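Dear all,

This email documents one entry for the complex benchmark we are building for the journal club exercise. For each entry we list the sequence lines for every component of the assembly. Then comes the predicted three-dimensional structure of the complex as a token string, followed by one or two observations. Please use this as the template for your own entries, and keep the labels exactly as they appear.
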Amino acid sequence: MTLADELLCVADTKLVMGNWLAETVMNGRSLPDYAAMLGMCTTSFGQTRALYQFLAPGYEAYSRLERGRDRDEICSMNLLDAPPRNWEDQVLTIWLAERATWTMMSGFLDHPDRRVAALARKIGEEAYFHLKYASGWFRLLVEEDESRAALEQVYDARLPLAADWFGPTDLEDPLHAAGERAVTPEQLRTSFLVDVAVELKSFGMVASAALTPPSGDWRDDARRRGPLPEGLFEVIRFKDPALAH
Amino acid sequence: MTISKGKRRPGARGSSTEARYYEVFGRTSSHDALTHLGSVEAPNPDLAQVRAWYIYDQHEWREMCVAPTDAFVPMGRAAQHTTIKAV
């Protein structure tokens, strides 16, 4: 896996996350909640755009990345493949995806290319509010029996997908070997799982989901298993490239 | 995952889910005074911060903070009629 592959995986994951937020914004609980969800939506798209521009400077290369790829070329995490089943699922899944992508980008905070380090720092700054949004909702959801049960259910289903994004534990990491990444994805995965457990514990939750990897062959350059589902691709694809400018 | 039980239902009086108003303040540079920007309604300080951050995003704030509206103590002769207002 190259640095470009790694950044594209984060960019595409943010693209799908932005679409999740755009599609579900009307499920917000109040007008200020809509505003927060739309704010997170636009910052997610902004991060995608910044990463695409870094990866593909110039109109044609950028256009292909943004609107010229088929669904088997999109490298978003499997965690976001299935739409949220309920509000608890929405909050928890966005939180896991945000925490996973930020954990991954934190490995590049000291990257020798200052532009990469700056992108990592900016994504971290914006992740602060995205994560805080979920924290605020967790505080509310754990107080209600039905929501608590729903959270337990979706956590067991979603956490293995989030952990899987860091890849099989026996893979070599050329980026770490080349000094481009401070730690290996395996170390980042451990750090991610510890952070998740600690934060959930602060809300009175005890995290204990089994981390069984999902089925399908691991695609190292895409950090996912299998192609993007057709239904999701229909949501995220650029509908009319001729109108783009 | 298991979650500890015995918490109150959302909306119960005194529950952390009861919506409150928070006043929002910000300044764009360290030379500026902290300015009252407005208010947001939120059930807890985390959501108040996030809502304030995305609603009052007309400037790139150097500093921003929120405080519960009921933490402000009106004073003086007009205290009974004091309403916190955005400037």
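Observations: The two ends of chain B are 47 Å apart (CA to CA). Residues 3-15 of chain B have pLDDT under 50 and may be disordered.
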